[in-house]
């Protein structure tokens, strides 16, 4: 089938987070009837059932943008770390890229630098770090990897707000944005209401921004992403499935890990694996019964997934309603609860 799209005015792309995470708009979409209702995110407490199971992705976003000075012209250069090869070698996206040659060194201090040691087929660079580990450099000098549609430099506020309050560990280069709306207070209220929350981890890679270049979905290839499911999480999810009760995925990354695991094993198991599952319309969901998600880019794999879950017509109607009613879109934008 052909790619799903819609028109979005640039001014609706959220450039800054709200001061209070849970005060964003929440559009509740009924995928059976196609009806939708407006709420604020804090209302989620009223919209959940006591026997629901919420599954969250507790990956951590790393400050993976580094800026060094050097190269052949002594210029400032951005190194965006995307994949660890060894303790001191990483795959990086480098800007400006065309002038970044093998052998070029970019300095972060007098003794801390990165040297380009190879160029990959997709234009990314293999970079070797010296004087400190990449992890140490990210901690000292790193910037949050805000997505390209946020047209500003990162700020100290982003270190807090472009991270879920329940982030634990991992190496993600983009936030699991549906989870950004949960505050500490809201999580406490969920626990007090007796609503169970379990964790998995999927590290979000650069594939989340990879455009669908093929004209039809069937020809698109997703990048593989690593995920981890604990024994306790697998037990809770399988128990919920056997009872026929609702499992609510917080975000498309959570949904992909759950459906990818089930598709491979016929159940949810304790595992460390990877998935390149591309979910688009006609996919049959086996685990996820409801989903909280943000509003996604036109023609993206994330939009394809929510269209598969709710139905293409329903999703496009909901997106057009959100545009008309001036919802905020993308990472720092408003949310949708599809049930």
Sum up the overall morphology in one term: globular
Which fold name fills CATH's third level, the topology of the largest domain?
Answer: QueA-like
Can you write the helix and strand succession as a string? EEHEEEEEEEEHHEHEEHEHEEHHE
Rg (C-alpha, Å) = 20 Å
Q: How far is it from the N-terminal to the C-terminal residue, by CA?
A: 24 Å
**Class computed from helices, strands and strand pairing:** alpha/beta
Mean pLDDT metric: 95
Low-confidence stretches: none
The largest beta-sheet arranges its strands as 2-1-17-16-14-3-12-13-15
Topology:
Blueprint: E1 25-29, E2 36-40, H1 44-47, E3 53-57, E4 59-61, E5 65-70, E6 75-84, E7 89-95, E8 105-107, E9 113-119, E10 125-130, H2 134-141, H3 156-161, E11 169-172, H4 184-192, E12 196-202, E13 225-229, H5 231-243, E14 247-250, H6 252-265, E15 271-275, E16 290-294, H7 301-310, H8 312-324, E17 335-338
Parallel strand pairs: 1-17, 3-12, 3-14, 4-11, 14-16
Antiparallel strand pairs: 1-2, 5-6, 5-8, 6-7, 7-10, 8-9, 9-10, 12-13, 13-15, 16-17
Helix pairs in contact: 7-8
């Amino acid at each position: 089938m052909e790619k799903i799209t819609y028109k979005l005015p640039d001014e609706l792309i959220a450039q800054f987070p709200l001061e209070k995470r849970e005060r964003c708009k929440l559009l509740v979409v009924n995928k059976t009837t196609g009806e939708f209702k407006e709420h604020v995110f804090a209302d989620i407490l009223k919209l959940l059932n006591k026997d629901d199971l919420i599954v969250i992705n507790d990956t951590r976003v790393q400050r993976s943008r580094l800026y060094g000075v050097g190269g052949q012209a002594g210029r400032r250069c951005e190194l965006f770390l995307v994949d660890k090869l060894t303790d001191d070698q990483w795959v990086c996206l480098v800007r400006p890229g065309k002038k970044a040659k093998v052998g070029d060194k970019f300095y972060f201090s007098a003794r801390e630098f990165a040297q380009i040691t190879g160029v990959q087929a997709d234009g990314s660079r293999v970079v070797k770090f010296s004087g400190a580990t990449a992890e140490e450099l990210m901690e000292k000098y790193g910037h949050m990897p805000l997505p390209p549609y946020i047209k500003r430099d990162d700020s100290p506020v982003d270190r807090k707000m472009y991270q879920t309050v329940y982030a634990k560990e991992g190496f993600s280069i983009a936030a699991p944005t549906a989870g950004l709306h949960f505050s500490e207070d809201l999580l406490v209220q969920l626990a007090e209401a007796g609503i169970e929350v379990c964790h998995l981890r999927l590290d979000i890679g650069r594939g989340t921004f990879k455009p669908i270049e093929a004209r039809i979905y069937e020809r698109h290839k997703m990048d593989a992403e690593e995920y981890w499911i604990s024994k306790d999480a697998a037990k809770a999810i399988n128990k919920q499935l056997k009872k026929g009760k609702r499992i609510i995925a917080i975000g498309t990354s959570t949904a992909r890990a759950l459906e990818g695991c089930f598709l491979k094993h016929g159940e949810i198991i304790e595992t460390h694996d990877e998935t390149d599952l591309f979910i688009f319309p006609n996919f049959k969901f086996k685990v996820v019964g409801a989903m909280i998600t943000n509003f996604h880019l036109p023609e993206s794999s994330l939009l394809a997934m929510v269209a598969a879950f709710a139905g293409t017509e329903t999703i496009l109607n909901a997106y057009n309603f959100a545009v008309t009613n001036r919802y905020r879109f993308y990472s720092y934008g408003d949310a949708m609860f599809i049930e």
